[in-house]
Each structure stands twice: as C-alpha cells, then as structure tokens.
Amino acid sequence: MFTVKGFAAQSATTPLAPFSFERRDPGPDDVQIDILYCGVCHSDLHQARNDWSNSLYPMVPGHEIVGRVVKAGADVSRFKAGDLAAVGCMVDSCRHCAPCEASLEQYCAEGFTGTYNSRERGTKNLTFGGYSEQVVVEQRFVVKVPENLDLKAVAPLLCAGITTYSPLRHWKVGPGQKVGIVGLGGLGHMGVKLAKAMGAHVAMITTSPEKGKDALRLGADEVLVSRDEAAMKKARGSFDFLLNTIPVGHDINPYLGLLKLDGAMALVGALTALEPPLQGINLIGGRKTVAGSLIGGMAETQEMLDFCGKHNIVSDIEMIRIDEINEAYERMLKNDVRYRFVIDMASLKAA
Question: With contact defined as beta carbons under 8 Å apart, do 259 and 238 qualify?
Fold first, then answer.
C-alpha cells in the first residue's frame, strides 16, 4: 500500500476538501498512473451530494482520468512506464458474463466496478477516483491516449466522449443520415463533433436560440429551436436518429415526431422519470424506437479515442485548480461552463 493525496467529500453536505488515503501496490496485471488531468462530470456532483441515494463516503470523485504510467506489473503487455494512459468510468467487472465476454463491460450482469463510489471486487474496499495524485488499475480497464491530442482536453472523452460515441456507433450513424443532437452541454457538444466526423448531417436541437451560434462553431450544419412550433412542424419526419442528452426528466413526445419511419432516439442523459408520459401512437405510427445507452466497453472506448485522434477531436474545456472544485460544482448547477471543467492535478501539490 502507498499513500496518495486527493480531494474528498466526507458527507452529502460537506464541501470537497484535502484527503489522504491508501492505494494498493500494483500487482502483476496492474498499471500505476500519475494523474495529470481529471475531468469534472455532472455525475461527480450528483454522487458527492448523494442525489441518487447511493453514495459511499468518504468519496474521491473523478472518472475522466488522463496521465502517465509510472509502473506496470510483470504481466502487463500493453503499457510501460512513460506511456500516456487514461481511465474512464469503470475499473473492473465480473469478466465472465455474456456482456463482459463481448467487450461490453458497461453492461456486466453483476454490475461493473465504478472508478469511484464503488467497492473493489474481492476486498470490498472503496474505490477512489481521479481527484487524486495517482491511481492503480488493472490493464484491461486502461486505454491508450493518442499522442497528437491536447491531453487536458482529452480527459472528458473518457465519459462525455464515450457516452455519445457508443450510441452513434451502435445505430450506425454515417454519411447520408440526418442526425439530431438534443441539448447542448457537456454531452451534446461532443455529440455534435462526433456525429459530424462520422459524416452525418448534424442538427443541434435546443430550446435556446442563443446557443445556435456555438453549435455551428462546433460543427453543426443547422440549428432547430424546439420551442419554435413552425420549425418543429417543418422538420417532422426528417431525422434518421436523435441523440437525446437532456439530463433531467422532460417531454420526449415532440422529438419523436421528428423521426422518419424506423427512426430511433437514444437517451443518454435522463436517469429519472420522463414526464409527461410517452404517447404510444408516437412510436406505433412510425415503427419508431426509444432506447438508452450507457458509456461503452473497453474495446469501444479505445476505438473512440483512436477515432478522436484521427479526426483531432477533443472537448471544449475550462481548466481549474483542485481548490476551485467546490466553486465549479456551484457553477455546474447554473450551467455556467462551456463545456467541461478539467482539473489540473499538478495543483494538488499546493492544496
């Protein structure tokens, strides 16, 4: 065991503060990473404040981790000291169920082990995340980072990037398709960039006309304001696929009218009840699908990073110091970030 510094929440009502804890020594299959940058996800805020009633304390959040390998176990074949490496939302799974064997560890039948706010398989020790100096992770759950990308802006790809890439790939988004990205935020801005790079005609669908200019800057071909009834009517039946990134319960019925026959809408943001109720006719009338998608497996996460390397795609970020994290959480509640906070973990040395 070795001691590392981090920032932790001790309860749902206390601010994040300096915290020292123990990491396991790397075993034969483990990679020890010196964390350079860690993205700040909305789920970090929800978990720290127990919004989902499943929080374990003390909690060191952070599952968008980028750094350099400082030590690799004897049986590690993919990494060596000095390599760039990244860790996303999970650090283990059962490895033997059908989803795990299909490289879909995010759908592990036993539930994957989260990078934080989870318990290690075997020891039941709490997992602690990337708001810390170093992390030790089994090599299967570590991915390589393309050398050409801006490291600090890579960090959010480990959650926001893969959360949007996976459904776009699963529903085979590509040239000749019209794709709508619903909601412009941390997820939505990545959806625009990725769908455009896949060759689709991309429309940003937003309630805020003022976001239109930024959506076009990000690569959208057009902007559809969902509160504009005339524009929504004109767009009916014109979309092949919708990626819905809205993070709260909302009315999805108007969006279903935008889909073509056999069109699909995938939800990646809303974890709570959708209100008002879904009207069956909006599905039946066009053989349409409403589905959901959760991050991606490890093979797909590596594929996503390689795709981003090829197309030079990273997140739009705002860098912060670790001692600014509580302020950043408050700003996130006000949607005051364009579009992802990233912590410079070098600042932890002075915290």
Answer: no
